[in-house]
Amino acid sequence: MTVPTTWPDGTTTMAADAGTGAIVLWVVLPYISLAVFVLGHIWRYRYDKFGWTTRSSELYEKRLLRIGSPLFHFGILVVLIGHVIGLLIPDSWTGAAGITETQYHVVAVTLGTVAGVCTLGGIAILIYRRRTVGPVFSATTRNDKVMYVSLTLTIALGLAATVDANIVEGGYNYRETISPWFRSIFYVQPDPGLMSAAPVLYKLHALSALVLFALWPFTRLVHMLTAPLGYLTRPYIVYRSRDPRLGNRPPRRGWERVG
Amino acid sequence: MRVMAQMAMVMNLDKCIGCHTCSVTCKQAWTNRTGVEYVWFNNVETRPGQGYPRRYEDQGTWRGGWELNKRGRLSLKAGGRFKKLITIFSNPVLPSLDDYYQPWTYDYETLTNAPLQDHTPVARPKSLITGKDMKISWSANWDDDLGGSALHGDQDVVLGEISEKIKLEFEQTFMFYLPRICEHCLNPSCAASCPSGAIYKRSEDGIVLVDQDRCRGWRMCVTGCPYKKVYFNHRTGKAEKCTFCFPRVEVGLPTVCSETCVGRLRYIGLVLYDADKVLEAASTPNDTDLYEAQRSVLLDPDDPHVIAEAERAGIPRDWIEAAQRSPVHALINKYKVALPLHPEYRTMPMVWYVPPLSPVVDAVRDTGQDAEDHRNLFAAVDALRIPVSYLAELFTAGDPAPVDAVLRRLAAMRSYMRDINLGREPDAAIPEQVGMGEEQMYDMYRLLALAKYDERYVIPPAHAEQAHNLEELATECSLDYEGGPGMGGSGPFGEASGGAAPVAVENFHALRDRQRSDTSAAPVDKETRVNLLNWDGKGAPPGLFPPQAGTPGDDKAVDGGGEVEPKP
C-alpha cells in the first residue's frame, strides 16, 4: 500500500512506513477477521440453520436473567449505536452540523460510560448466573465459554479505554486516528500508521474485537444477525404451503425430483 | 368467500377412561428426546384439576391468546409487536420448568451394582435437568383421578370461576378426563406471537407447525398460546409443538394419539371454513357468542355454492368429498354435540369436545332413579347446575345454554336407543324434544357408539397429483393411491414395478384389511398377495402354497384360510 495519508499534525506517511508488526495487526488481521465474519455467517446459514438460535436458558432460571439480560442487551445496543456514530461518521460531518468537538465528546463519553457500565454489569450478572445456577452451567458448552471470555474482554477493554483516556487522562480524540483507520479498511486503502499511534488500551480493545468478530459466526452470537425486525411489518398469521422440497438444501444438479 | 380446508379433531369425553395411552404413544413417537423430557404434546388431565402446565388456564397470569382492545379490535393479550420486541431479552411471562415439572429418571444402576448389604438397594430419583437427587413433587398428571385434590383442588382455574358452594360439591361429586393436544387454531396466537415468523399454518390442511430452521428461540409463542401447547426445547433452543402427526395424516393415517386410543373416542376429519370470516368471528364482542361465531365460520360442504367456491380455491375433489363425510363436521354442525375448548381465548380452536354426560347419569343413578330414562335425565340436566356450569366454563365461555342442549341431546339418544336395544317400540317423541329426527338420532348414535375405523378417521390421503412432493410418498409410484392400479397388487409393469411402497402405507393397508376382515391372515375380498412380514403364522393364507393339481384344496383356501381353530 502506498497511499499517502495526511496526519492531523500535517505530516504525511505511507502505509509501508508503519512496519511489519503494524501491518499484520492493523491490515492483515482486520481483513482476515472481516472475511471470516462474512463467509462464516454465510456458511453457518447454509449448513446450520437448525443451530441458529439464541439457545435461551430462561426455562431454567428467570430471576437473574430478568435483570441481567435486558441490562446487557440494551446496554450493548447503545454501545453499538455509539460505535456506529463514532467510527463511521467523520469529524467533519458533525462539525458541519454545528456540533463542537467538546459537545460531541461530553455526550459520547457520558453515554458511552453509562452504557458500558450497564453492559458490563449485565454480562457480570449473566456470567455469575451461568456459573452458579446448576442447569444453566451444565448447558454451557466450551464454545460458550470461549465466546464469553472474548466478549467480556472486548467490553471490559472498551470501557477501560474510554474511562482511562477521558476521565483519567483528560480526553483522547479517537475520531482523528481510530475512526479514519476503521473507515480506511472499508475503502480498501488501509492505513496501519493511524492505529499505531492510538493508546494501548484502544489497540487492545480493537484487537480483541477483531478476534471476537472472527469467532462470531461460530457461536450463539449469530442470533444478533436475525434480530426479528420483520415482525413489525409482517401479517400476524403466516400461511405456508407444504414444502415441496425435502431437507433444507436444494438437491444437487441432476438429482432434482421429477414429475 | 375464501374456502380453506382444516384437519380437525373431536373427542368424545364420555368415553375417555383416562388411561393415558394417547399421551404415552405420542411421547414415544415425538418427545422421547433430551431437551423435551418435560413435554407432552398430548396430555390427559383430570377435571377438576390444575392441568398441565399448572393453572395454564389462568390468562390473568400467563397472558395467552387474544383479547379485544379498547377499540374492540383483536390484539394479543401479551402485547403487540412493539412490546414483544422490547421484552424479547427476557420474556416476563414464560412458565418456568417448575410450572410444568422437573423431569426425572431413576438411578437404576445402583440396583445392579450395589455391593451386598442388609437392605435392598434403592433407585433414587434424579433430576434430568440438574442430574442431582430430587424429591418428586409434581408431574404432568400428578393430580390424576383427583389425587391430592384435598391439598390443591382449589387451584383449578375453572372452579375459581364458579361459586364457592358449587365448588366444594363439585369436587365431591364429579370427575372426568380431558385429553388435550394442540388445537391447530384457525387464528393461532402462537403464530402471531412468533417474532421470526417461524410458526405457520399449512394452507392445505390447516396444521400449525414450527419451522425448525427458522425458529430462533425467542420463546414468545410459549406465552402466546393460551393452551400452553407450544414447548421450548431447552437443548436445541427451539420451540416444538404437536404436529397433528402430519407425516401420517399426509398418507391418510390418523394421528398416533387417535390410532392408539383405547376408548376410540377421537374423530378426525376435514372441515371447510371461510378464511375471510375468521377475524370477524374472533372479534365477536361477547365471549359467550364465540361458540356460535366459530360454528358459523365453518361451511356446509354439501352446499353447491360452497363446493363451487372450494373448487375455485383449488381444494381437490376428493377432499371436498372427505369433508362431506367428515365425522367432525357432523358432530359440530349436524348434530351440534361438539364444543370448542375455551372459545374465549379467541384463537378459534379446532379440536372440539363432546362434553361428558356421565357425571349427570351417575348423579341420577346414585339417587336410585332410572338413569336411562330421558325424563329423569332431562330433569337432572336442569337441576344439576354444577356440572353444567363447570362444563360451560370449559367449552362455551360460561354460557350454560349450549352445554345444556348438548347434554339433553346425549341424554335423549341414550334413552331413545335403550328402547330399540330392548326391542321396544322406539319413542319418536324423545328425539323430537331435542329437535332431532329419529333417523338423525340413530345416525348420531351410530357415529358416537359404533363408528368403525374408517368412519371415525376420514382423512383424505395425500394427494395423488402432489404425491411426489410429500414426505412419505415422495418416491412412490403415482398409481399407488388407494384403489389405484398400483395398490395392493402389481404395478403397471409387474409385481415389483413402481418402487417400494412406503412402510407406513403398507402397514396401514395391511392393518386395515385385517381389522375389517373376518379372518386374521388374509382378507377374502382382496386380491391376494402374501406378505410374510404381515403373516402372523395363523392359518395358511391362500397363495402361500401353489395350488395342488387334482386336489379340491382350493376350496379350503377360499373360505378364508384365516383363523383355524386347533382341532381336538
Concise summary:
The complex is a heterodimer of chains A (259) and B (568). Chain A is mostly helical and 259 residues long.
Q: What would the keywords be for this entry?
A:
heterodimer; A: 259 residues; mainly alpha; two-stranded antiparallel ribbon; 3 strands; 59% helix; B: 568 residues
Domain count of chain B: 3
The total count of helices of chain B amounts to: 26
By DSSP, the count of extended strands of chain A is 3
For the biggest β-sheet of chain A, the strand order reads: 1-2
The CATH level-2 architecture of chain A is identified as Up-down Bundle
The figure for the number of domains of chain A is 1
CATH homologous superfamily of chain A, by name? Answer: Transmembrane di-heme cytochromes, Chain C
β-sheet strand percentage of chain A: under 5%
N/C terminus separation of chain B: 68 Å
How much beta of chain B, percentage-wise?
5-15%
In angstroms, what is the radius of gyration of chain A?
Answer: 22 Å
CATH topology of chain A: Fumarate Reductase Cytochrome B subunit
Molecular structure report:
The complex is a heterodimer of chains A (259) and B (568). Chain A has 259 residues and is mostly helical. Chain A has a single domain, classed as Up-down Bundle (Fumarate Reductase Cytochrome B subunit), CATH 1.20.950. Chain A contains 9 helices and 3 strands; from the N terminus they run ββαααααααααβ. Chain A has a two-stranded antiparallel sheet with strand order 1-2. Chain A starts with a strand and ends in a 19-residue tail after the last strand. The model of chain A has no long low-confidence stretch (mean pLDDT 88). Chain B is an alpha+beta fold. Chain B is built from 26 helices and 14 strands. Chain B has helices at 21-30, 59-62, 81-86, 97-100, 109-113, 149-152, 157-161, 164-173, 189-193, 220-224, 246-249, 256-259, 278-282, 290-297, 304-312, 317-325, 327-334, 358-366, 374-383, 385-395, 400-421, 429-433, 438-450, 453-456, 503-516, 553-558; strands at residues 3-12, 43-47, 66-68, 74-76, 104-106, 125-127, 176-180, 199-202, 208-210, 230-233, 238-241, 266-274, 339-340, 351-354. In chain B, the strands form 6 sheets. A 4-stranded mixed sheet of chain B has the order 12-1-14-13. A two-stranded antiparallel ribbon of chain B has the order 2-7. In chain B, helix 18 (358-366) packs across helix 19. Chain B starts with a strand and ends in a 10-residue tail after the last helix. At the A-B interface, helix 2, helix 5 and strand 3 of A face helix 3 and strand 8 of B. Strand 3 of chain A pairs parallel with strand 8 of chain B, so a sheet runs across the interface.
